[in-house]
Every structure is written in C-alpha cells, then in structure tokens.
Specification:
Layout lengths: L2 H7 L5 H14 L3 H7 L5 H15 L7
Length: 65
C-alpha cells in the first residue's frame, strides 16, 4: 500500500491535499512524506507511523485494518 493511501485511510489528509502534493512531487523530485511535512499537512510522528505501517504491510505482517 502506498504512503498516500495509508494517510488517506487514516483521514490525516484529504484526496485534494494528496493530489496537490503529488503534483509538487513530480516537479520537485522529493519524497511524498517530506513534502507533506513541509506543507504542514502532517507531523513527524504521523509520518513515522504511516511509514511503519507501509513497511509491515509490504512484508506481509499487517493484519489489522
């Protein structure tokens, strides 16, 4: 699961905010999480939790939704 989808599922960002940051990402060549932090849409601990969830999902250990 992609980081943006995890943040949407947790209702930390809106679809519009995600789309806006993805547009920035294509021009600035920076990571999605960095841009979300820079814009103040999420805080560091929210990013860290979402990245941990992404890691566990990728490795097949995430079973709680």
């Amino acid at each position: 699961m992609q980081l943006g989808q995890i943040l949407l599922q947790k209702k930390l960002i809106s679809t519009e905010q995600l789309e806006e940051v993805i547009q920035l990402q294509t021009s600035q060549k920076r990571r999605l999480g960095e841009l979300l932090l820079q814009k103040g849409l999420i805080v560091k601990n929210q990013l860290e939790a979402a990245l941990k969830e992404q890691y566990w999902r990728k490795n097949g250990f995430w079973v709680i939704d």
